[in-house]
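Q: Convert this sequence to structure tokens.
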Amino acid sequence: MRWGSPTVPAIKGMIVKLFLGLIFGVFGLFIAACAVGFYMPATLEVERSTVVSAYEEDIFPYLNDLKQYQSWAALDAKLDGTQILTAGAESGLGQNQAWQDGPKGYEVGSREIMQESAPEFVQLRVTVNGKETTTTHAVFRNPDDSVTVLSKREIPQPGFPYIHRLRGRFMKPQIGKSLETALSRLKSQVEANQ
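A:
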């Protein structure tokens, strides 16, 4: 045996220390993530807007009729080809839709117009695979006679262990991009049909 070479028990001891250090490190990161998540808002809010050259009355039917969403909404782009059943009111408050056998991640869901005020805003409750979100579309007249359409999505974030709130922060840009794309399609649709 040479002087300074580790023995088998010494090697085992180093492996145990390394393993315990790794376990405590992962546990420490988990506790830190929970602590940071605890202080984050319980609802993730994402807001985007676009300016449309139209009147409020030209835009409102696209927001107040769920059947119109198929031509512009981000969710409908993902549900492409899925049969969507519409019930309740012909449009506006009380109109609702449901689907099943949708693509992965969107297998089962529904949406309903919960509130409206023509031609200023429409609020929807959207449920996909048991997870509920609220989307509000508001319409504002600008001084130059154009109209701003504002879409705001509110996604409740689960409580303990609060890590979902951190994950939501990383998803925010993706959700924002989805809203921007939908508003761009809405703008094109409204301006093309004037």
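The chain has two domains: 1-39, 42-192.
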